[in-house]
Design brief:
By secondary structure, the protein is of the alpha/beta class. The chain is built from two helices and eight strands, in the order H-E-E-E-E-E-E-E-E-H. The longest helix has 16 residues. It starts with about 25 loop residues before the first helix and ends in a 9-residue tail after the last helix.
């Protein structure tokens, strides 16, 4: 007789809750998983904060800054999601991308969250190439519109 397959209680990548045989009240686990998937499928956070906002609506996501306080203490770098009047957390994995609505920039996780800083348009110098400067300025503007470059200095 073969041994049954034993599954963990959560998925590896996002920590989604898994059901087990004969589990009562499955809707709690399924609803939690759906909220978590819904929160990260678009990979968008409202802002980066170190303290939970008092008036966060259901489903709101935030990137937690270093030295977080209150309910977020010890959850540095995580993504906090408001579910059922409580906070649920997703630990980021290397390569994860999220778009910060407040900063209007994509953040990349590689041990820490980082966003490309604002790039200044070329000016000055001894040789001035108007066409090259115009092209570089257009490229910088396009990267800002896409959220690849920050629209403000960090």
């Amino acid at each position: 007789m073969s041994e049954p397959i034993i599954y963990p209680s959560r998925t590896d990548a996002l920590g989604l809750p898994l059901l087990f045989a004969g589990q009562a009240q499955k809707e709690f686990f399924i609803n939690e998983a759906m909220f978590l998937v819904d929160a990260v499928i678009w990979r968008t956070v409202e802002a980066a904060l170190d303290t939970p906002p008092a008036d966060a609506p259901e489903g709101a996501c935030y990137r937690i800054l270093d030295g977080a306080l209150a309910d977020w203490s010890g959850r540095d770098h995580s993504i906090a999601i408001r579910i059922g009047a409580g906070w649920h957390f997703i630990s980021p994995s290397k390569g994860m991308l999220v778009f910060d609505r407040m900063r209007q920039c994509w953040y990349h996780f590689n041990g820490i969250w980082s966003c490309a800083n604002e790039v200044t348009s070329p000016e000055g110098g001894t040789v001035i190439d108007v066409e090259a400067r115009a092209a570089l300025s257009q490229l910088i503007d396009a990267l800002k519109r896409l959220g690849i470059l920050s629209v403000e200095a960090s």
